[in-house]
């Protein structure tokens, strides 16, 4: 399979990407619900145009999921392609150099919200399938597509959808385009992702705010009680103090740690990037290990009482905090939430009440086996097009679908995207390199052939 079809149609593909990026498919804000629906319908139409069959926009408890398949490669393996068509809010708007949903192309880069995360990457497997079907009138593997509209809010509907549609989604392997690389010229595939679990802690100390001159010194204070609870979550050395938190953590090999530390930034560079004076965290582990393969617990926000200008002498009746944990293989989000709930119960001062609520957006940690044939297929496809072997990346963030596919469908996910991590993901002036766009199309086209061989 040559790439002439891709070269000849590149202008059309860029025009389609531009059209896709104009849709403000912001999943987190209710006022954009119709736009998210529009993006789902656009995605479905694009799959049909590529020659994919049985395309449908399927309802969930939240935003819809787009499904399609092509299943005529008799005796060949079945591959499930994953992506998401929703995007983050564009604020702060005053920091953009152009309108976030009016794409601008400058210096071979397309600027728009969702460009690198991940509308351009969504199109890569679609264009690859179109290329095969136009040139050869067939595909070397059977394919299924799962494009969701809630990844940016933690994929709350995805698990339920998978449970209800296990047979529809059944596959031999999954490929996620929601991925990228550290440097433009160094290909990479993510092989390890941390999971995610979060809670909100609500503390109440009275029926309403009280005047500190009338009641101060004689009644409990919700903010002070919350501070004591939060302080109890970690030891002074940075380790998590929640009983049982580390019990299921899988210790990584010395070889893997050496690989991480050989490619991770020096402590000084890491400090400069983070804007901190010193590194701090779990003793016995380097910053690379702490941020990629160790679990964490962080307070993400807290509020209570008066926060306006000047002084308001009240004793706040309610105070709140959001706490999230990054998880590593063998840790279960539900179990970690239960451990935190029990910890808060033990450490809540007797004079107040505290409730712990799980936050949406749980994700299982994920690690791809080193000998997975899909990883070898990716390596061969990348080598064929880019003439370089991809690095194996461990990422400290979370992509819920990888853990869900393993937990619910017993399917491993190979990550291959063409975003570069300097492209302003979630930030103003987000962009995507058009050179990566065309390169990714070619690699995915070759990947279909390699998957037919290695997944046999």
Automatic annotation (TrEMBL):
Pfam (any one): Peptidase_M20
Show the GO MF annotations.
metal ion binding; peptidase activity
* Domain Peptidase M20 dimerisation residue range list: 192-350
Keyword Protein biosynthesis: yes or no? Answer: no
Please name the InterPro entries in this protein's record: Cyt/Met_Dipeptidase (IPR051458), Peptidase_M20 (IPR002933), Peptidase_M20_dimer (IPR011650)
Write out the entry's keywords from A to Z.
Hydrolase, Metal-binding, Protease
Domain of life, per UniProt, equals Bacteria
One GO BP annotation is:
proteolysis
Q: What is the protein name given in its UniProt record?
A: Acetylornithine deacetylase/Succinyl-diaminopimelate desuccinylase
Which species is listed as the source? Answer: Salibacterium qingdaonense
